[in-house]
Amino acid sequence: DVPGPCFACGLDAQVPGVGSALASLKRERLLQDVLHAPLFAPFSVEQRHELLARFKGLEVDTGTVIIRQGEAGRGLYVLAGGEMEIVREQSDGVDFVLAYVGPGGMLGEIALLRDRPATATVRARSPSTLLFLPGHLFRRLVDGVPELREYFDKLADDRLREVQLLERAEFVSEFDIVYEE
User: Fold this and answer.
1) How much is the pTM?
2) How many CB atoms lie under 10 A from the CB of residue 73?
3) How many whole angstroms separate alpha carbon 113 and alpha carbon 138?
4) Which DSSP category does 88 fall into?
5) Which of 18, 54, 145, 169 is most exposed, with minimal Cβ within 10 Å?
6) Contact call for residues 130 and 79 (beta carbons, < 8 A)
7) Where are the alpha helices (DSSP H) in 35-145?
8) pLDDT tens digit string along 80-130?
9) Chain CA centroid to CA 101, Å
10) How crowded is residue 7: how many other Cβ atoms within 10 Å of its Cβ?
11) Sign of the torsion angle spanned by Cα atoms 151, 86, 1, 17
12) First-to-last C-alpha distance (Å) of the chain
C-alpha cells in the first residue's frame, strides 16, 4: 500500500515530487485493478483503454450518496477504491443494509437495464474512488456486446433475487416465528 499523506508530504519536502509520484502510482494500480473487472473482459487491451477513457473519475467522501433509491439511473459506477454500502430505505425511516461492495464492484446496472427507478440507495462507507459511465454509453455498450448484456442481466437478476430473499427473511424475523419440524 502507498503510505498515507503525512509520509508523502514529509518526503516531498525532502525530495520534491515524491508525493505526486506516489499518488500517480496508486492511481495506476487502481486503474489496472479496474481493467480486470468483468466489464472489460470481452475486450482487447487497446479496447479496454479506449473504454476506460469514456469513464469519469470521481472521488467521494464517507457518507456521500451516489445512487438514491427511487430515482432514475444515471449511469454505471465501478468502484476503484474504498467501500460502498447498499441500503434499502424503509418507510419507518430505518435503513436495511443489503450489501457492502469493495473495489471492482459495479453499481447502478439494475435501474439502467430494467429502465426503472433505483431499487436501493448506495453510499460511501469510506473515502472512495469511482469510475462513472453515463447511462446512454452503458446502454450502447451492452446492446453492442452480447457477452456484457448476458453478464449484466445475470448480475441484475441475482441481485434482485438476493434483495427479495433478504427482505423476506427480515419480514419473517420481525414476527419471531419458530419453525418446528
Assistant:
1) 0.74
2) 22
3) 9
4) E
5) 169
6) yes
7) 45-52, 109-114, 135-144
8) 889 999 998 877 778 888 899 998 899 999 999 999 999 899 999 999 999
9) 6
10) 13
11) positive
12) 51
